[in-house]
């Protein structure tokens, strides 16, 4: 996916070759959106919770420097070694050096989109360190050598039969077995072995509490805990935006996170990690990776409020009907489309256009990020920075010229309707993407303006 | 009260019957309506494509045509939302601000300004409402399914006054149809799939007509209905509210 040169439209078109699969994908995610709605509507103060969470995050973004230093001081006090990484390369180098110092060649890793963004697995594997993803969805994606297509449900684009095939090929399950319970048992058996034997475990971070120096990891599988508790070396990687000021703020976010993500009242495990147990080493890597650049963009800084619940993906009809891998970025869907251009504007110039600006994403967002407004703003920035195709620039200039004067507009309007009426094949052909699966509108003989001039007087009084 | 009738460019060219219904409906309700003939487009197609900087001439024309009216009314939520959010006049920001505050989509003008409580309209058919996203989430014409908030719907409020009309419940009451401006051609595959799924929802639930406050959504859905030779028709809400047969 990361190496693909195809844009979202082309990848989405390929995804749509199998309509029955699209229907299934769309339905699975819509079902989660409905579960989210039920959960949200069971809490009378839901909208107030969203507003509170959004404001706490505003405070965090405005005081990030101070909170980070407070967090670092408290971590250090608790006996955790703190590292700072400006980019993916530095993050990967730090993790590698921690492992190398202890001569560790095997690591278990729970879900962390940040390490996906950093391509940590590839980096470590190239240097002789074996990494195994312990989140079941990520484990399946790793076996299939594909990145996650969804930040909460990494293999939501795969059906159980496909997963059965992958297990058969890589783990030696019986061919044709696709029963989820059987497959999960098999994966668990493999993973248990890894949990017990691996000395190093890396987790992501959902929330980092500045006032106490603890961090919280939310999972449904308990895999982060299994890895961390059995490890000699525990590493956590977090983006610098994951800070919250106080422990009392956790309640707001934990109530929102799982309800928004899957419709559960809370994740099965919300584990607090604070200090190493005797004999254990704990490290935490604070990663910037474009976050401070985004913080400096007034129109887009609020995107850093994201708590990675995935609700905007589940509700987005474009996401549901194009699949996460069409976004060619670790974070896909609407939130990915406003985060990715900050990382590489040229490469991700297509993503803010992969939306109808319907606004459903902003409505489900638990921290009230104005996602669809930011998509609109990114479009302006991308065009201003020169990343729009030349043909599009010319087309838009021609349109602006036509619409700038009533004379040129009515002439072209008349011509257009005449073409539709008299030589429809001039537009009803394969060069017109509208016509591929839709009929063109009829070309009425008369525009409203022409009818009005004939039938209504200059002062608006009726002639007929 | 004089209302300036704002008929968006593609409605003027392709859907004159919806514009005529809007005019007649307003006149029927006793409003003095004037159609400024030199109007073209609000500039939304350029702006949503990232070219808002090319819309100055559209803004200038819009202000020339409409800034003197008490109210400006259009049968298109999408174009109204664009004007409300993006009409600017660098040399006269106060004029732009005043004009922005006077622009109304037809349905909200009927419910909020005229406070219409009965209509002499008859449309004896089963009708599904397609919620235009810009009408719903931009202009708040109805409650949005994502929010934990009290339900209301301005289009339903009006359609309930139409004799013989039966509203159809949908499986997904406010999902986007996939038109999305240039999205409809730039992302053809997804756009069409979204439109097909909306059409299926209406057909499955027994709609004879699909109506909306936005003709752009309807143009897209109608294109799919026509291609499939469906008997279901797309019709702008003004045509229903103005129907007497």
From TrEMBL, chain A:
Stretches assigned to the 4Fe-4S ferredoxin-type domain: 296-318
Domain of life according to the entry: Bacteria
Keyword 4Fe-4S included in the entry's annotation: yes
Entry-linked PROSITE patterns: 4FE4S_FER_1, 4FE4S_FER_2
Native species: Larkinella punicea
Keywords: 4Fe-4S, Electron transport, Iron, Iron-sulfur, Metal-binding, Repeat, Transport
Name of this protein: Lactate utilization protein
Region (Disordered): 442-464
Gene Ontology BP term (one): lactate metabolic process
GO molecular function, one term: 4 iron, 4 sulfur cluster binding
UniProtKB/TrEMBL annotation, chain B:
InterPro entries with a match to the protein in the record: Cys_rich_dom (IPR004017)
A Pfam family hit: CCG
TM segment ranges: none
Signal peptide positions on this chain: none
Cysteine-rich domain ranges (all copies): 3-83, 127-221
UniProt superkingdom: Bacteria
GO cellular component terms, A-Z: cytosol
A molecular-function term among this protein's GO annotations: oxidoreductase activity
Family annotation (PANTHER family): LACTATE UTILIZATION PROTEIN A, UNCHARACTERIZED PROTEIN YKGE
Protein name as catalogued: (Fe-S)-binding protein
Organism from which the protein derives: Larkinella punicea
């Amino acid at each position: 996916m990361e190496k693909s040169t195809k844009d979202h439209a082309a990848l989405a078109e390929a995804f749509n070759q199998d309509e029955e699969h699209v229907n299934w994908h769309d339905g699975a995610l819509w079902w989660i959106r409905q579960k989210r709605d039920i959960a949200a509507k069971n809490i009378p103060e839901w909208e107030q919770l969203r507003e509170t969470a959004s404001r706490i995050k505003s405070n965090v973004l405005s005081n990030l420097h101070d909170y980070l230093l407070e967090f670092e001081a408290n971590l250090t006090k608790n006996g955790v070694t703190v590292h700072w990484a400006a980019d993916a390369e530095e993050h990967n180098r730090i993790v590698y050096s921690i492992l190398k110092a202890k001569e560790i060649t095997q690591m278990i890793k729970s879900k962390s989109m940040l390490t996906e963004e950093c391509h940590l697995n590839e980096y470590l594997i190239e240097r002789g360190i074996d990494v195994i993803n312990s989140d079941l969805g990520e484990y399946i994606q790793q076996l299939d050598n594909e990145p996650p297509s969804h930040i909460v449900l990494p293999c939501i684009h795969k059906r159980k039969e496909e997963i059965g095939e992958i297990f058969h090929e890589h783990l030696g399950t019986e061919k044709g077995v696709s029963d989820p319970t059987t497959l999960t048992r098999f994966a668990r058996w493999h993973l248990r072995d890894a949990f017990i034997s691996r000395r190093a475990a890396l987790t992501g971070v959902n929330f980092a509490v500045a006032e106490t120096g603890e961090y919280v990891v939310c999972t449904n599988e308990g895999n982060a805990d299994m890895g961390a508790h059995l490890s000699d070396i525990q590493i956590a990687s977090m983006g610098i935006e994951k800070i919250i000021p106080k422990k009392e703020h956790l309640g707001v976010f934990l109530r929102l996170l799982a309800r928004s993500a899957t419709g559960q009242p809370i994740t099965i495990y919300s584990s607090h990690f604070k200090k190493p147990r005797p004999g254990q080493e704990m490290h935490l890597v604070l990663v910037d990776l474009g976050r401070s650049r985004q913080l400096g963009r007034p129109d887009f800084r609020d995107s850093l409020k994201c708590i990675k619940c995935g609700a905007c993906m589940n509700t987005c009809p474009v996401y549901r009907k194009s699949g996460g891998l069409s976004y060619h970025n670790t974070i896909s869907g609407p939130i990915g489309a406003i985060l990715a251009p900050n990382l590489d504007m040229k490469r991700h110039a297509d993503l803010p256009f992969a939306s109808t600006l319907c606004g459903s994403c902003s409505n489900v967002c638990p921290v009230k990020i104005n996602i669809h407004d930011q998509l609109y703003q990114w479009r302006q920035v991308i065009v201003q920075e020169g990343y729009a195709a030349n043909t599009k620039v010319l087309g838009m200039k021609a349109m602006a010229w036509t619409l700038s004067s009533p004379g040129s507009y009515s002439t072209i309007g008349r011509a257009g309707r005449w073409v539709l009426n008299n030589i429809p094949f001039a537009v009803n052909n394969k060069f017109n993407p509208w016509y591929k699966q839709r009929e063109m509108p009829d070309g009425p003989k008369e525009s409203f303006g022409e009818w009005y001039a004939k039938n209504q007087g200059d002062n608006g009084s009726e002639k007929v | 009260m004089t209302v300036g009738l704002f008929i968006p460019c593609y409605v003027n060219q392709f859907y004159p019957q919806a514009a005529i219904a809007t005019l007649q409906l307003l006149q029927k309700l006793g409003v003095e309506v004037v159609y400024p003939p030199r109007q073209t487009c609000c500039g939304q197609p350029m702006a949503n494509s990232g070219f808002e900087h090319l819309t100055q001439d559209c803004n200038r024309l819009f202000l020339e045509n409409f800034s003197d009216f008490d109210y400006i009314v259009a049968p298109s939520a999408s174009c109204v939302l664009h004007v409300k959010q993006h009409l600017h006049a660098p040399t006269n920001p106060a004029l732009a601000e005043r004009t922005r505050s006077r622009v109304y989509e037809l349905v909200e003008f009927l419910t909020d300004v005229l406070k219409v409580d009965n209509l002499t309209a008859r449309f004896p058919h089963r009708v599904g409402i397609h919620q235009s996203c810009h009408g719903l989430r931009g202009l708040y014409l109805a409650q949005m399914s994502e929010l934990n908030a009290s339900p209301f719907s301005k289009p339903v409020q009006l359609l309930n006054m139409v004799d013989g009309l039966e509203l159809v419940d949908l499986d997904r009451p406010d999902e986007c149809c996939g038109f999305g401006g240039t999205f409809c051609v730039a992302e053809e595959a997804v756009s069409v799939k979204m439109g097909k799924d909306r059409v299926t929802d209406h057909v499955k639930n027994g709609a004879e007509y699909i109506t909306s406050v936005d003709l752009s959504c309807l143009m897209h859905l109608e294109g799919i209905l026509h291609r499939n030779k469906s008997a279901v028709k797309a019709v702008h809400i003004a045509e229903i509210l103005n129907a007497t047969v």
